[in-house]
Amino acid sequence: FGTRDGESKQEHREKAFNVFAKLLQEHRNDVKKRSLLLSHTSSLLHRMIDRSLLSLDYVQHLLWDYYDGLSSDADADLVGTSRADMAAALADHIPHMISSRRGASAACAAFGCAAAKDRKKMMRSLRGYVRSTLEHRDAHLVPLRMILTCDDTVSSKKFILDELLGAPPDPEGGGDPLLDLALHPTAHKMLLVLLSSVDPTTSPHFPPDERVLLAPTMVLVEGKLVSTSRKDPAVRRTELLKHAQTPVATLCRSHARTMMMDRCGAAVLREAFMVLGEEDRLANDVVASVTTEVLEHETGHLTLKRMLAAEVKGEGNGPKSLPLAEAMYKTYGKKLLETIGASNRGAFVLSVLATAGTIGEKVQKEIMKKKCMEKLKKKTGDAQNKKGYEALLAVLKQK
Predict the structure, then answer these.
(1) Could you tell me if 192 and 268 are in contact, meaning their C-beta atoms sit under 8 angstroms apart?
(2) Pairwise CA distance, residues 353 & 364, whole Å
(3) Average of pLDDT values for 234-239?
(4) Where are the alpha helices (DSSP H) in 204-336?
């Protein structure tokens, strides 16, 4: 692939990759030519698959363009047959085609269009590679897509989740494998998918481009768009969560402090607290893990603050009572300003605790005593670290 004068290699590659999409666009009103183009491209891709060329970036890009082109085609019968046939051809080769974002996107599209038996083959092809796939910058989307759209939750548990949730501890003392998963920048999203109290395709934990790839595949049936996945998403998530509940609860209770001070671990911990149904025990473990280091940590204090705020607002399927607020007041009551409020960041936590219903009333009553108010006003005089104390004062003034 030679380049023209004044044209960078990257520009040349982009032009080459976009030829297929460009041709589809040019013939968008000519169904016959589009059919011939798709048929020819399908034949070419099948030959590439047979020759084990799926690891090539160009082939992965062409696969994505193929599925992307089909998604905008008006011929529903042609689309359904072509996408399903290609998915069947790819079923045993998923690990080889997901080394790029385009390849992972094509795999997600193929899984959404595949027949039930081909979906099972795709999941089986990842056996032994699920963890390494989740730790890949682009490929991690593929296992997420599988468990979100596969109606056969038994196969999802067997081929995807068992490798993650049943991993034995590292014999060389490398730590808890599930904790490593929870702290990983991409792999932790699997736990978020299992724990999410809302549809992951609308969850703020995932950027917009990932939500599109994780959304159900819709097909036209008798003039109506229907999902290729028949099972209710809420039912599917309930079934998967039942399998993951015990190991994830154990993880959060055993490593609460570590998770609170890590951005990814904190997201998992917050979701677990809201949906696992073990709020009292988990709240006690979280409070027992709170130290000066946690309260002064940039992520640790935000984790506590957000967990308290979600509890107060009753977000998701979270607790209707206030177990975390109660546990914090039980532990730090009568010395709130000297412990939680000893630092500016801790004061932010205290400002939320002061809004927690009847517990908040007790907190406000304690802090509004003369000696405490004098200390608090003195702390607000610090020119550099006073925002937390100002937020706390603002809550107290609302009373």
Answers:
(1) yes
(2) 9
(3) 89
(4) 208-214, 233-254, 256-260, 263-275, 279-289, 292-296, 300-313, 323-332
Say what the pTM is. 0.87
CA distance 166 to 244: 10
pLDDT in tens, 324-347: 999 999 999 889 989 998 899 999
Q: What are phi and psi of 225, to 5 degrees?
A: -85, 125
**If you write DSSP's letter for every residue of 144-168 in order, what string do you get?**
HHHHHH-S-HHHHIIIIIHHHHTPP
Neighbours of 166 (CB within 10 A): 11
Euclidean distance between CA atoms 99 and 53, whole angstroms:
12
The answer to whether 342 touches 292, Cβ cutoff 8 Å, is yes
Tell me how far apart the alpha carbons of residues 172 and 194 are, in angstroms, rounded to a whole number: 29
Q: Which tens digits make up the pLDDT trace of 240-272?
A: 999 999 999 999 999 999 999 999 999 999 999
As a whole number of Å, the CA-based R_g of the chain is 26
Check if the beta carbon of residue 140 is closer than 8 Å to that of residue 189. yes
323, 278 Cβ separation under 8 angstroms: no
